[in-house]
Amino acid sequence: MSYQKGLGVIDTVIVVLIISVFIGVFIPRYYRIARESQEIALRAGLNNIRMSLDLYKLHNGEYPKDLRELITKKYTAPYKEGTIFKEEYLNAHSLDEEGYPLDPFDNRFKYDPNTGKVSSGTAGYEKW
Questions:
Q1: What are phi and psi of 75, to 5 degrees?
Q2: Buried (b) or exposed (e) across 4-42, using 16+ Cβ within 10 A?
Q3: pLDDT at position 6
Q4: 11 with 83: CB under 8 angstroms?
Q5: pLDDT for the residue numbered 40
Q6: From CA 51, how far away is CA 53, in angstroms rounded?
Q7: Where are the alpha helices (DSSP H) in the chain?
Q8: Which residue numbers in the chain have pLDDT < 50?
């Protein structure tokens, strides 16, 4: 009987050790992969905003005063022959309480209306 009781404790310790190793290996990888996916989303978001700014300037002759105009102002575009639809310059996925688009790190994008330059508001990603 005592042999079986001891074996149960050893089995439990081994299982706890294996789970601890998995947690120690996979948690850091999860955070790295999550950060990389945010960076990929940031690149795509910046590209979308920059293309929207170029389209806005093409239609209006100047850049918008702030990024909210890309979301609220619509333009008319041909879709198929004989049809027309109105579309926003930018469809933002996340906005702050004032209606400004947010980057994947939940910070506002920085924007200069004179030059049309846009960048992330997150530290370390300002030069992207």
A1: -125, 155
A2: eeeeeeeeeeeeeeeeeeeeeeeeeeeeeeeeeebbeeb
A3: 59
A4: no
A5: 96
A6: 5
A7: 2-60, 68-72
A8: 1
